[in-house]
UniProtKB/TrEMBL annotation:
Residues 14-326 form the Enoyl reductase (ER) domain. Transmembrane segments: none annotated. This is NADPH2:quinone reductase. It comes from Asanoa hainanensis. It comes from the Bacteria. GO terms for molecular function: oxidoreductase activity.
Length: 329
């Protein structure tokens, strides 16, 4: 079966409003391990802006499609993909091989997808896969957050931060959110954070230590890097773990190995990377279960139309609170 559809593609690095263009593409049957979906909605995120700027580490030169995650109806199934035609699924697109989700049709990695929970709207499902799979990688697989521990989430009102707040609460942790404005701090509390601290505090380390009752944080979920992450790392307690997830400030955190030694804390890198097929299936089933229980719910913010994709990508460098989603069909 061959399908044709319109897709937004990056033609060169630069301002997305100038270099992201619509093209009509031909979609062959999906390769093994993928499905082809008719896209209902697609989730946006800071990586879109990084990709347009040529700052995303895992992609080469344009042209390529943008859009890492979608909710859509399966129209064709590749070998070894456990889905059937007509199923509404949410999952991560084949963007790493150039096929994104800001498109009428998208290839989805079957190992990084699951049936969309019945209680989820298309927009909630589209905004779920990347942030919540990453939060699972960071908090469960890498930093091994335990019930009763204290989790500090940086960039907490952003896509990744929101997911870490919710998953941290679902895992039984106390959560302190760090964000940049009173509105974003209130938003973090509204989705479950126990404490909320401004990243503009004159002494962020002191504020975070106070939030943990002086004991220090057990885990810092770092999606921003830079000075904010360095200040938060100083608020880690003994045995603490710094989960390095991203660099929304533009720079990674600078680590001091002597400080790590003296205060007995560690740093772990986090990449939401599919490992074994069986292992991934367990992770996605657990995420879908928590979503079905209402413990994880994408807080959808602005919903953009398909023709707004270039401006929406430009907006990702400083998005408002809430997940931005594109309505496709
Ligand atoms: N490792 C992985 O597998 C993985 C997966 C997904 C995303 N990521 C990475 O995670 C990062 C965040 O992605 P996202 O989609 O969550 O982005 P996002 O929705 O834009 O959120 C990022 C947050 O960072 C904060 N921020 C921006 N500039 C800052 C600065 N100078 N200092 C401190 N905080 C700042 C902003 O909040 P305030 O204005 O409230 O401070 C913003 O809400 C990106 O680098 C992305 O590539 C990694």
């Amino acid at each position: 079966m061959v399908t044709e559809g319109v897709a937004w593609r990056l033609l060169a690095f630069g301002d997305p409003r100038e270099v992201v263009r619509q093209e009509r593409l031909r979609y062959d049957d999906p390769p093994a391990g993928e499905v082809l979906v008719r896209v209902r909605a697609a989730g946006a995120g800071y990586p879109d802006a990084m990709m347009a700027a040529g700052a995303f580490p895992l992609l080469g030169e344009p042209p390529f499609g943008l859009g890492e995650e979608v909710c859509g109806d399966v129209v064709a199934v590749g070998a070894d993909a456990p889905f059937t035609v007509g199923e509404r699924i949410m999952g991560i697109t084949a963007f790493l091989r150039g096929w994104g989700g800001y498109a009428e049709y998208a290839y989805v990695r079957a190992g990084s997808a699951v049936a969309a929970p019945a209680g989820f709207t298309d927009e909630q499902a589209a905004g779920f896969p990347i942030a919540y799979r990453t939060a699972y990688a960071g908090l469960v697989e890498r930093a091994a957050l335990r019930p009763g521990e204290h989790l500090v989430v940086l960039g907490a009102a952003g896509s990744s931060g929101v997911a870490a707040i919710q998953l941290g609460k679902a895992l039984g942790a106390t959560v302190t959110a760090v964000a940049g404005s009173p509105e974003k701090l209130a938003f973090c509390r509204s989705i479950g954070a126990d404490h909320a601290v401004s990243r503009h505090s004159t002494d962020l380390t002191k504020e975070l230590l106070a939030a943990t009752g002086g004991k220090g944080a057990d885990v810092v979920y770092d999606v921003v890097g830079g000075d904010t992450a360095a200040a938060a790392a100083k608020a880690l307690g003994r045995g603490g773990r710094l989960a390095i997830v991203g660099f929304a400030s533009g720079a990674p955190v600078t680590l001091d190995p002597v400080d790590m030694l003296l205060r007995n804390y560690s740093a772990v890198g986090v990449l939401a990377d599919a490992h074994s097929r069986e292992g991934e299936a367990v992770v996605w089933a657990r995420l879908a279960e928590l979503a079905g229980q209402g413990a994880l719910t994408t807080p959808v913010g602005k919903v953009r139309s398909f023709d707004q994709v270039p401006t929406m990508i430009a907006e990702q460098t400083n998005p408002p609170a809430g997940k931005i989603v594109v309505r496709v069909a």
